[in-house]
Structure prediction request, 285 residues.
Amino acid sequence: MGISRLNSAQLSDELFQKFSKLVYDTAGIYLHEGKKSLLQARLNKRLRATGIKSYEEYYKYLTNPSNFGEFIHFLDVISTNLTYFFREYQHFDFLEKVALPEITSKKLKDGDRRIRMWSAGCSTGEEPYSIAMCVLTFFEKNTQKVKWDFKILATDISTRVLQTAIKGIYSEDRVKKVPPAMKNRFFIKIVQNGEKVYQVSEELKKVVTFRRLNLKDRYPFKGPFEVIFCRNVMIYFDKPTQGELIRRMTSYLAPGGYFFVGHSESLAGLNHGLKYVMPAIYQKP
Prediction:
């Protein structure tokens, strides 16, 4: 079967189940039957890129341990990434008006200047850079005389999106919701391929570290984090995996720390031990 005929070939139910199980077992992402056409379209991309002529041949290639590099590319195309700066703005408003005053007040009383935050499933970087802008602006307005040791860890399973995040160059439509004062302070306007784009400043890049991480793997850090953003990530997992991941992630959350999920997500029905604060925001007792 030639590559040109792939679009007319159908992914069999048996092979769909095999690919689905592979994705679930390794990344925890649940591909239900309704995702079959999506999976087939994503598979076609990798078959064209590799020159492999059938789904069955590709599955054999993918499950060969010596082809781990291709497995990373496969996960890259499976994960969907759509975001922009200050998405779900209510979270950043809460961070500025409630969470940061609490955190910094407690830290100053304890003589502690270290603040760590984690953006899990950071995609192309808009979320962690938005958090950084919010926190640095808060410091400047409220604690000018204090030198904070502030860092954000930003992780994603996709190497493709992390490459974009590290470059930190965004089209005009992605920065539309950035407040004007922040846009002037934290972005540099440049022209790239004849198009006006925005590059994040070195000030932001200094406080954000990007790393590849499969949330089901061992976490190579100790924490604790004062804030964890894990938004629009849980929708890819079934309930048992959600519960397991929430418990693991929040074990790295400091007492009193905040955990943010997407507005389309809820922790209802999960055993997590967090206190509900408001829709999509929880706190560790």
Observations:
- The longest helix spans residues 89-110.
- Residues 1-8 have pLDDT under 50 and may be disordered.
